[in-house]
Write a structure and sequence with these properties.
There is one protein chain. By secondary structure, the protein is an alpha+beta fold. The chain has two helices and 14 strands; from the N terminus they run H-E-E-H-E-E-E-E-E-E-E-E-E-E-E-E. Strands 3, 6, 7, 8, 9, 10, 11, 12, 13 and 14 form a ten-stranded antiparallel β-sheet that branches. A two-stranded antiparallel sheet has the order 1-2. The radius of gyration is 44 Å and the shape is elongated.
């Protein structure tokens, strides 16, 4: 009985050893296979197919992640020759025109009426209004003329707005083709133009009236306001001398 049990123990020991050896062999084969998968060819022409080992990604340990530079037509990020060639191309490229370049209209405008400027553009400074009795900016200029004087368009453009204000009276705004926006205030109610009408330089817009209540105590005049790029400017600075 003792000999039979000893023989059985020897057989079990032999089976366990064989299983252990097989497990080690399987582990070695798996490690070898994983290593081979991470080997990618460098693609050099002179030295044949040499190989480089791809380090596994710590965040995404995937065998399908390519080595930097191994994807066709994708340059390396640190390639100095690529950077230098890009610099060379930029020097030979055509200059790009500036977008939204501001329009400077210093010529091509005539006086809307012939007369003396009684109240000039205040350039943001406060001046006391003779009619309202308050200190305020004067964002245009007042040109003296008799009531009923024909008011001419300073330049060609399109009539943008026609409105009647309780302070400034009947006003016509013309969006000129030279980039300026001109307001003619204190006109008579009977006008020669309508909203959307195209006017030429020197075309009659209307006549001066007594509708400008904000400047009623001044001598008869037409109030002219000019905007460039949405900001008030001195109307006399854009008159063609």
């Amino acid at each position: 009985m003792k000999r039979r049990s000893e023989k059985q123990n020897i057989k079990l020991l032999g089976v366990a050893s064989a299983v252990g050896i097989a497990a080690v062999a399987v582990s070695l084969f798996a490690a070898y296979n994983a290593t081979v998968k991470r080997l990618v060819p460098t693609g050099t022409e002179n030295s044949g197919n040499s190989w480089v080992y791809s380090q596994p990604n710590s965040q995404n340990d995937s065998d399908d992640v390519p080595v930097q530079g191994s994807v066709p037509n994708v340059p390396l990020g640190g390639n100095s020759s690529t950077k230098s060639s890009n610099k060379g191309n930029s020097s030979n490229s055509e200059p790009v025109e500036e977008a939204n370049k501001p329009v400077t209209a210093t010529i091509g405008n005539i006086l809307p009426v012939e007369g003396e400027v009684s109240h000039p553009y205040s350039n943001g400074e406060l001046v006391k209004s003779e009619t309202l009795g308050v200190w305020k900016t004067h964002d245009g200029c007042d040109i003296l003329c008799e009531v009923g004087t024909e008011v001419k368009s300073m330049s060609e453009g399109v009539v943008k707005i026609i409105d009647s204000s309780s302070l400034w009276g009947v006003c016509v705004t013309v969006e000129q083709s030279n980039g300026l926006e001109v307001q003619y205030c204190g006109l008579a109610k009977e006008l020669n133009v309508k909203t959307g009408a195209v006017v030429k330089q020197g075309e009659i817009i209307g006549k001066t009236g007594d509708t400008n209540q904000a400047e009623l105590l001044q001598e008869p005049h037409v109030h002219i306001g000019v905007k460039q790029g949405g900001k008030w400017i001195d109307p006399m600075s854009v008159i063609d001398k």
